[in-house]
Amino acid sequence: MEPCDLTAREARSLIGRKALSPVELLESCIARVEAINPAVSAVVARDFERARLAAKAAEAAVARGEDLPALHGLPFGVKDLEEVAGLRTTWGSPIYRDHVPERDQLIVAHVKRAGGIVLGKTNTPEWGAGANTRNAVYGATGNPFDPTRSAAGSSGGSAVALATGMVPLATGSDTGGSLRNPAAFNGVVGFRPSPGLVPSEKRAAGWSPLPVLGPMARTVPDACLLLSAMAANTPCDPLATTILRRRVRTPEEFYPPRRVDLCGLRVAITPDFGFAPTERHIRDVFARKCALFRHVFALAADATPDCTGADESFEVLRGVNFLTTQLERVRTRPADVGPNVRANVAEALRYTAEDVARAEVLQTALYRRWQDFFEDFDIILSPSITISPRPWSELYPAEIDGAPTRTYFHWLALAYAVTLAGHPAVSLPVGTDRNGMPFGLQIVGPRGGDAFVLSVAAELEALLAGDPRTARPVPDLAKLRAAPPISGMPGFMGFD
């Protein structure tokens, strides 16, 4: 095993015991990027020289016997929707092809302060739209289990970098599943926190609970470790005070995850939340996976909260969010804006104030029904995503099992049902589907139950790790090393 294949928790423990040098770890990650990245194009802007300086400083701090922060010496990838001072940040948009920020975004600053070292930026679809990681600046990111297939998105680059051992930790963001969907497609862990838990000073519609920032990792404890550095009650985010009960949260609240007795849990199991267009293949795989472990719970019932109005509500509220950031660009530079962004803005402009009011009423009613549902259940289990990975050349799934999808993001309905309710959720890798591609299990917790749902996920992860049918799948690195560059594939560069 190379140092880059260690979990973040293992690497940090070795660094603290002077058994692993931060420089050695970083160089191992850099070597993995150079060997594997041509096949998948996950890391798109490199910060290797500054990372080397930071790793040497981290090594010196260990030698001096200093108190070491939680992430000391751990390399991490930053999604290219989040700014890093002095490193190109494009949002996947040609308009910002040469943009170099002067300041770190808050989430990056927090992870750096905890000892993390930026390795580089990870690829994303343009402005995070579409959940297929492909843009006109860096091109497409391929799935490490089959580079012709989608890595999902919008945190697709982060997920692929993690799955292939390029970094032990990575940042991401999520509106309609952008932390959970790529985690599911690539066999890693993605956690969508409660709105406000990870503060953002960049959210234009600051009171909207739809978009959040969060951690990605290869294991649940690693995701907890990264979350412990990200979570904060920061005044720049107006939602932070609605969730955080104390001025400062301590890292111990999330890491290490607390033990939970699975035998005492009441669990609801649903393949579709009553409305999501889940592929028959995924329904069958989900049922077979759950059959392997549903007996461990006190109660495992086939049940779902009532998600009436979810499609309509999310379509409108997502559209409103896009207007806050993209309307001016679509109007003034339409040739430099991709089809998913243009479609979302065009649709949003058709909505009236009455439509927005109705969407907010529908969301509120859904939220209240979810609270009633959680009186009877502790956890909900569902597939993370409705389909098995398809070619990245497909702009979006226009049909599922022959039935047309409502919108270019309808295939994300399993994720956005949870987004609307505002509950925390994690995607846990649970083996593969019948196509040999990773399968993600979505674990949804109660309102504000971030630490709890992560603890449940950690227990399930440990339980399932010993069974090859449910253990985290690992891509064939030798095959990726020998693969031709993804950049040579037809359609690699562009919006569509």
Rg computed from alpha carbons, rounded to a whole number of angstroms: 21 Å
How many strands, what sense, and barrel or not for the largest sheet? 11 strands, mixed
Overall form = globular
Instruction: Report the mean per-residue pLDDT as an integer.
Output: 96
Number of domains: 2
CATH topology title of the largest domain: Amidase signature (AS) enzymes
Which architecture of the largest domain does the CATH hierarchy give at level 2?
A: Alpha-Beta Complex
Distance between the termini: 39 Å
Strand order of the largest sheet: 1-3-2-8-10-9-16-17-13-11-12
Number of strands: 17
Beta-strand residue fraction: 5-15%
- Fourth-tier CATH superfamily name of the largest domain: Amidase signature (AS) domain
Provide the structure class. Answer: alpha+beta
State the name of the first-level CATH class of the largest domain.
Answer: Alpha Beta
Number of helices: 15
Helical residues, percent: 25-40%
Flag low-confidence runs: 244-249
Structure description:
- The strands form 4 sheets. An 11-stranded mixed β-sheet has the order 1-3-2-8-10-9-16-17-13-11-12, with helices on both faces. Strands 4-5 form a two-stranded antiparallel sheet. Strands 6-7 form a two-stranded antiparallel ribbon.
- The two termini are 39 Å apart.
- The longest helix has 23 residues, at 310-332.
- The chain has 496 residues and is of the alpha+beta class.
- The model is unreliable at 244-249 (pLDDT under 50).
- Helix content is 36%, strand content 15%.
